[in-house]
From TrEMBL:
This is Uncharacterized protein. It comes from the Bacteria.
Length: 105
């Protein structure tokens, strides 16, 4: 879970053997004229088991990111190419995407 009042959100997911599967962070900052969440690098452990579950895990973690954005009222600026691609392929993220590289009409 997350604490919406904490400007540094971090998430570590471990498997049943206590091996790190993924790690990601977001930082709330004042940018130009608004407050945003900067979503930093999204790390996936490159083991075979974690790669098989990566799409499902990514869906779950992106729902957490969306919840943080909606609850705080601050959009997300993803920096990781994997996450940018995820946002591009999921239109339900367009309204929380800060500085998306295209216009949605």
């Amino acid at each position: 879970m997350f604490n919406i009042d904490n400007p540094h959100q971090f998430f570590d997911i471990y498997d049943n053997n206590d091996v790190l599967v993924c790690h990601w962070t977001m930082d709330k900052i004042k940018h130009k004229d608004t407050t945003i969440w900067v979503m930093n690098h999204f790390f996936f452990n490159p083991t075979n088991d974690s790669q098989k579950s990566m799409p499902l895990l990514l869906d779950e973690e992106m729902e957490t990111a969306k919840s943080i954005s909606k609850e705080s009222g601050c959009p997300i600026w993803p920096l990781d190419p994997k996450i940018i691609d995820y946002f591009k392929n999921h239109p339900d993220f367009y309204d929380i995407w800060y500085q998306k590289p295209f216009t949605v009409e």
